[in-house]
Design brief:
4 helices, mainly alpha
Length: 90
């Protein structure tokens, strides 16, 4: 396996991804908290990364309609406790 992406995955990323956004762990936890409280959606931190990234760059999306994909509810209880203790995004 190694640390290199599979050739088909790399080709898809090159073809379809315009940019990457790096978010910090506290932003992921805040995104989990926000989804749970505001949308009644339980997501694992990696599943909430799209919300964290969009929120971190929200000025870019001002007055635009956007869609984010939220996935995964495989979250351990101790991580959920940390997320709910983190401040929500809004």
């Amino acid at each position: 396996m190694g640390s290199r992406p599979a050739p088909f995955a790399l080709a898809a990323m090159i073809a379809f991804i315009d940019r990457f956004v790096l978010v910090e762990e506290h932003e992921l936890l805040s995104a989990v908290h926000s989804l749970a409280v505001a949308a009644h959606v339980l997501a694992e931190p990696s599943g909430a990364a799209t919300l964290a990234a969009a929120w971190a760059d929200r000025a870019r999306w001002q007055d635009k309609d956007i869609v984010i994909v939220v996935s995964g509810s495989n979250i351990e209880a101790h991580i959920l406790r940390r997320a709910l203790a983190a401040p929500p995004l809004w």
